[in-house]
Each structure stands twice: as structure tokens, then as C-alpha cells.
Amino acid sequence: MGWWQNLRQRCATCSRITLGAGVLAVTLAISFVMLTAGAYGLAWTNTEQFCIGGHEMRENVYAEFKGTIHDKNRSGVRATCANCHVPHEPLALIMRKMAASFEVWGHLTGKIDTKEKFEKNRYEMAVKEWTRMKKNGSQECRNCHHFEAMEPEKQTERARSSHEKARAEGTACIDCHFGIAHQEPDGPGPREIKVAK
Fold first, then answer.
1. Would you call 9 exposed, middle or buried from its count of C-beta atoms within 10 A (0-12, 13-18, 19+)?
2. How far is Cα 159 from Cα 82, in angstroms, rounded to an integer?
3. Residue 11: enclosing H or E segment and its boundaries?
4. How open is the CA angle 95-143-190, to the nearest 5 degrees?
5. Tens digit of pLDDT for each residue in 56-96?
6. What distances in angstroms separate CA 66 from CA 72, 79, 181, 195, one per listed residue?
7. Helix (H, G, I), strand (E, B) or coil at 163
């Protein structure tokens, strides 16, 4: 405790400006370390390796994702878990990460640790994700897919008509485009889910 006594004696003879500058410097240093660690943590939890670190995701939804259009395609553009399941906007991203921290509890308690438990809870998990995507207008989809960048003349008549209608009505992408990266669960789809935006 000698260093603490030494610091207290020095501070007792410091001017208020020196003391204030010292407190400010220590506060900034701690803030920088915490901000850096937080940013690193957010980036790390967005990696595919983190997402499939538990066997629940690796053996179920990740196995289903492999070989889909979002995994392999002629352009070589590949979506990872975070591209579709984590908002890119800072505030929405933080809110999603906070909500996801409660999902860790399910991992720790073994809620979906077997194929049977996973299948039993698949519809509930899908509805939760569909509801989130409907509330934000499928923002994660629209981070990559833009109506303005589409070439309607290269789409089928049905797709063109559906996209025009969706654009006019503000329909969420997930209402039509679901079950494309993961198995579609039994039960009503996202169109039947009513949410207040």
C-alpha cells in the first residue's frame, strides 16, 4: 500500500488543475481501453466462427446454410450469420447484442442442445427472428439487396410484379423470402405474423 500513500501525499500538494488533469487522463485511458475492448468484442461476436462455436448452431442451422445461394453463388459474394441476423446500424446492433446475451442462457442451460430439442423449438425461434425482421422492414436484407439496384427486366414477370407490389406497400423481404438459408419450420409463415412497426 506504499504506492497508494505516496499518491495521496502527492495529490494533497497538487493544484486543482494538476489533480483535475490527472483524473481526466486516467478516465480517458480507462475509457479508451473499455471502448477498444467493447469494439473488439462486438466484432468478434459477429464472426462466423463465434456463431457456430456451439454445436447447436454448427450442426443445425449452419449445416442447412451450407450450399445455399447465400453461401455459394456465381458472384462469390457470401453472407455470414451476422449479415442476416445482426443489424449494421450502431444503436440497433447494440440492442440486438443485448438481446442475444439472453440467448446465451439457452445455450448454457441446454435448451436446444440436441437435434430433438432444436426441432421442438425451431418454429418458436423462427417466429422470433421473423418478427424482428418484420419490425425493422428486413433491414439486414436491404443492407445488401436494393430495389434501386435490381434489374427488373432480368426477373420473371411474377418476381417483377411481386417486387413492385412489395416496394409500393413497404412489405418486409422476409414475408416472401424465408426458408432460403434454413429449413422452413412447420406452421404459418412470416406473412401471418402481425407486428406493429
1. exposed
2. 27
3. helix 2-12
4. 70
5. 899 999 999 999 999 999 889 899 999 999 998 889 999 99
6. 8, 11, 8, 31
7. helix
Q: How far is residue 194's CA from residue 197's CA, in Å, rounded to a whole number?
A: 10
169/183 Cα distance (integer angstroms): 27
Between CA 132 and CA 103 the distance in angstroms is: 14
Instruction: Output 49-54 pairs: Cβ under 8 A, ≥24 positions apart.
Output: 51/80, 51/81, 51/82, 52/81, 54/107
Tell me the C-alpha distance between 94 and 100, whole Å.
10
Q: 145 is written with which cell numbers?
A: 439487396
How many residues in the chain? 197
Write the single-letter amino acid at 111.
K
Count Cβ atoms below 10 Å from residue 54 Cβ, excluding itself.
15
Looking up cell 453472407 gives: 79
Distance CA 72, CA 65 (A): 10
Q: How far is CA 103 from CA 15, 23, 45, 159, 164, in A?
A: 50, 38, 13, 36, 36
Cell numbers representing residue 153 in the block: 427486366
Please determine, for residue 13, whether its predicted confidence score (pLDDT) is greater than 80. no
